Amino acid sequence: MELMTPAPILDTPPEHLPTGNLDIHVEASPNAPSIARIGVASLALNGLLDWVGAPLLEVLGKGWKVSRTADWIPVWENEHLTVTLLAPYGERGLALRLEPRTPGPIQVAGNLEYLGLRRFKEEKLETTFRATHDGWTGSYVLEARAERTLLALGLQADTAPSRADWGPQFVLEWASGPVTLYLGLALEADGARTTALHLRRVGWETLLRKTLHKLALLSTNYTGPLYEVYRRHLIFSYFYAQANTLEGEPVLLTSRSPHYYVSGAYWARDGLLWFFPALLKADRKRAKEVLKAVFRRFARWPGEHAQYLSGPPLYPGFELDQAAAYPLALARYLEATGPNPELVAELREPLEWVFERVAQEKHPSLPLYRTFLSPTDDPVPEPYLTYDNALWAVALERLSPYWREPETLKHEARALRETLYRQAERNGRFVFSFEPGGSHTFSDEPAGSLLLLPHLGFCNRQDPVWQATALWILGDDNPHHYKGRFPGEGSAHFPFPSGFGLANRILSGLMRPAGDALMVLEQAPLDAGYACESFDPQTGACRTGVGFAALTGFIAYALSAGKDNKPATLF
Question: What global pTM score does this model have?
Answer without folding.
Answer: 0.96
